[in-house]
Amino acid sequence: METYDVVVLGAGPAGLAAGLEAAKRGGKTLIIERESRPGGILKQCIHDGFGLIEFKEKLSGPEYAERYIRMVRDKNIPIMTSTFATKVLKDKDKFIITLVNSNKGVFEIESKTMILANGCRERTSKQIFIHGSRPSGVYTAGTAQYFINILGYLPCKKCVILGSGDIGLIMARRLTLEGAKVIGVYEAKTTPSGLTRNIVQCLYDYDIPLYLSRTITRIIGDDRVEGVIINEVDENMKPIKGTEKLVECDGVILSVGLIPENEIAESLGIEIDKFTKGPCVDHNFMTLEDGVFSCGNALHVNDLVDYVTESGRYAGERAVVYAKNNIEKNLVKVNMSVNDFLYVVPQYIDITSNNKKVVLYFRSREIRKNVVVQIKYDNKIVFTRKYRVLRPPEMQRIELDLTELKMSKDKDFCIVMKEGQY
Question: Which of 236, 282, 293, 367 is a plausible cystine mate for 350, CB 3.0–4.6 Å?
Fold first, then answer.
């Protein structure tokens, strides 16, 4: 049975970065990808805006992916494509991973560590309880993007988009450029869910209307979508009776949220964060199961691919350290107020780690203006940053150096948000 130091599940931007870093650090590494080509969702993202932090350039998705694929291949790191992990078992200090592909059938490999870089998937119409029949013409935004950018098909000619997440906004522009009529983007929340730059560049620049506090309550049509019923919603996002409005269309594009794919993590009994839907990790990106790491959108949904890559790089580095030293950990919880923060990652600090660099990612629960975010340890402020405005769609990043802190398990580590003059 082939044995590795690090096995990475997923060859998207997180998995490629993790595998590359692990190999650079001297770990015997294998990357597993269930699709026929590496690159993940970037392959179908032909719009630009990727790589501004990582490469200081504005790249398309395929360009960004190709750069990492080339770096991985230059290091002769094996990528096993069209291969699916069906089962993972822990045997003492190693993992037995059962794989299946068309060349080798069902087979097993061993690894000292495993990095989960599986990405995430889109919510469907049934997951948000839209009533009506199941006619053709209802797509998730990612599926519509695949139809247009990979297959060359226009999935609809006159459509509505539910949800103002970034993929939905980008698809509103893409469909318009391909000749379809986007009647409007409907959002149940009182504020947009996507980045401000995408609201401006994808909607305002193309005169596509955005309707807030509205949702689709019924899809009409038997064989094909013929229209939708739109309702206004109250402050709890519940439809308001008497506000029904029929909108005729032949397509519905759903951009209603992403869910990290963590079936492998759940099969190992790894604790999942109820806010991120990804595994809880320490600042080395190791989950609460020794030897299992998580990164990218499988850990939490990022707004920029550059941060997906960054977390993959950290996970790859620390996986090799663990594989070679098998260090025990001692965790301190990162406390936060759920009234202020949507989530904070990582959820724990490993105070025994020789890695004293901590990168925290967080999102505010609501739009907040003129606030101060502080990191406190043992009730002492160790970090402060002022923000003119915080918006839930825009993820924030804080980098800390814990070298000077003498940390112990009985002292409180927390992140707080309070009003403050910018």
Answer: 282
Q: Distances from the Cα of 358 to the Cαs of 53, 165, 226, 245, 284, in angstroms? A: 19, 29, 52, 50, 8
Beta pairing, strands 214-220 & 227-232: antiparallel
Q: How far apart are CA 6 and CA 109, in angstroms?
A: 11
Q: What angle do CA 144, 392, 372 make, to 5 degrees?
A: 160
Check if the beta carbon of residue 285 is closer than 8 Å to that of residue 294: yes
Q: What is the mean pLDDT of residues 366-383?
A: 93
Instruction: Give the residues across from 374 on adjacent strands.
Output: 384, 416
Token pair for 323: 């594989």
- The pLDDT confidence band at residue 44, using thresholds 50, 70 and 90, is very high
Pairing state between β 94-101 and 84-91: antiparallel
Tokens of residue 311, six digits:
């977390």
Strand (E) positions, 51-180? 79-80, 84-91, 94-101, 105-116, 120-122, 131-132, 138-140, 158-162
Range of lowest pLDDT (27-41, 82-96, 192-206, 401-415): 401-415
Q: What pTM does this model have?
A: 0.93
pLDDT tens-digit series, residues 50-71: 999 999 999 999 999 999 999 9
